[in-house]
Each structure stands twice: as structure tokens, then as C-alpha cells.
Structure prediction request, 256 residues.
Amino acid sequence: MIDTHTHIYFEDYYSDIDKTIKNALDSNVLKMIVVGIDYNTSVKCIDLASKYENILYPTVGYHPSDLAVFDINLLEKLLLDNISKVVAIGEIGFDFYHFDYPFEIQKEAFISQIELSIKYDLPLIIHSRDSFDDLIKILKIYKGKIKGVVHCFNLGYAEAMQIIDCGLCLGIGGILTYNNASLTREAISLIDINYILLETDSPFLTPSVHRSLKNEPAYVKYVLEKISQIRNIDINELETILNKNTYRVFSKIKGE
Ligand SMILES: [Zn+2]
Prediction:
């Protein structure tokens, strides 16, 4: 399995990163994308990925709730200095739930990072919370030029189809196991399976079976199980399909 979205570098949550990575490997989660949320965490992702070559893959980007020192030139320099390692730009997007920065600030940061991804032909990892209408407006403008994933997808079939129509995949995590996610389960039962990616967003959004614990990449197996039930596909066959999807979207990650 591949966890396409984790923040295992959050020291407040993971006192022993090596142990967390070992748990993942022991659970057959052999690769993980470590996703930056600002400059410093993007550097951390790159450093960790250097230590765990062919296991961890870093991204660089500013999350819409972490724009205090947003600097697109600094980000581009970091990307260029590590261009052989960085597999995506992210996570970027809109967050109107926390609304830590005004709309125009979020939009400017989002667009400049989309343009960076186009310039270097990299996929995007997109965060969108309570902001679907504004997100889809931007994605439509860039349709045909962008690739990547809208991570932590928690909406229904109509929204899923609009995202897929813009050429992007859906990152599916622990939310799929929650009682209140019936619309998302319905969407997952209907859409083209080639547009689904597996993720945890760990330490957040722990699958319901371990709801009281912090999430970790090892638990991505519960998401795989849930999709397998919903689609009535053999779990090993599903794993092969989802791995292929990941290699297609994140083309710098090579398969076994
Ligand atoms: Zn995230």
C-alpha cells in the first residue's frame, strides 16, 4: 500500500518517527508521501525523505492556513535545489473553515503555487475545506494543464465528478469509515476506480476502528478495506489498482 498523504514529521504527535515508519512498513505500507504545509515543514519532508530513500517522498507547499511567511520565490528555490526528490506541490488550496487568512490572500497563494506546478510539470496536492465552489472555479481555469489530487475528499458524487472532469483524482482517507460519510461512500461506489488514491492525512482523521488514537500511515489499510467492501473488489486486486493510480499521478515515484 501507499499512503499518499501524511504529516509524520509533526513532533507534537510522533515522539518516535522511526517507530512510526517501521509500523507502516510492518503493515505493508511501503511508500508514503510526506506533505509540507509551509517552508519549514517542506524542508523537514525533504530531509526525512533523504534519510528514507524509496520509502518517503516529499512535497513542498504552503497550506492555506499557514501563509504567515508565504514566499513563492523561496519555495521555488527550495524546489529547484531538490528537484530530483520533490514529487508534488502541496498541500495548497482553500480553507474557509478555519479562515486564518482572507480569501484574496488564500487565492493568490493557491494560484501562484498552481503556476509553479505547471512550470515544473509536477502534480498538485490540494486541500479544500468548506470551499468547493471557489475551488472548482479555479480548477476549471487550469483544466488540461494540471494534474494531482484533491485530498481528504468528503463530498458526494456530483462534486467527485466535477473534480475528475478537471483531470484530478480523489484522495480517500479515514473519513470514508465514519458514520456520517454515506454520501462519500456513495460517490466511491459510483466513480471510475482509476481516480481514487489512498491516504491517511495522519495524525488526523483516524479510521473509526481506532478513532480514539492518533492516526498513522499503518492505518491506511482500514481505508483500503472499506473501499474494497464498497466496490466489492478483492483487496489485493484493489491494492494493485490504487498503487498504479499513485504511480500514474506521482510519476517520480517508481513502482517495485
Ligand atoms: Zn494534510
Remarks:
- The chain has one domain: 2-249.
- Strands lie at 2-6, 31-34, 56-60, 88-95, 124-129, 148-150, 169-172, 196-198.
